[in-house]
Amino acid sequence: MALIKCPECRKSVSDRAAACPECGYPITIAHAKKPDAPGLDDVQTVEQTSKRLKLITLVAMFLMLVGLLITMQGCPSAMEADAGIEGSRVGPVMAFIGLLIYIVNKIRIWWYHK
Ligand SMILES: [Zn+2]
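Above: the input record for the complex with zinc ion. Below: its predicted structure, written as tokens.
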């Protein structure tokens, strides 16, 4: 049993006390959390990771959508006259890249959640 300082009122309190007798600050919980703090950092990392992965998913879906739209509309002669045969490939390539990013991202999400 050791005496620690109450983080709230700075009085000496037993570290086994559930709460500070002076101000009622919950000592046991505050003290128990300190040694190995698995809490905030991990949660934040996971949250940031999943946010980034969601953003990538959005970009991938956008690429697929635009690629498909270009594929469906992009065959007309106007475009081929402009950009030659290469122009008609933009849509499928975009959709394919989007699909690739999407699949890789899904695998990464699965990996992180293991
Ligand atoms: Zn106190």
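Notes for the reader.
The chain has a mean pLDDT of 78.
The radius of gyration is 28 Å.
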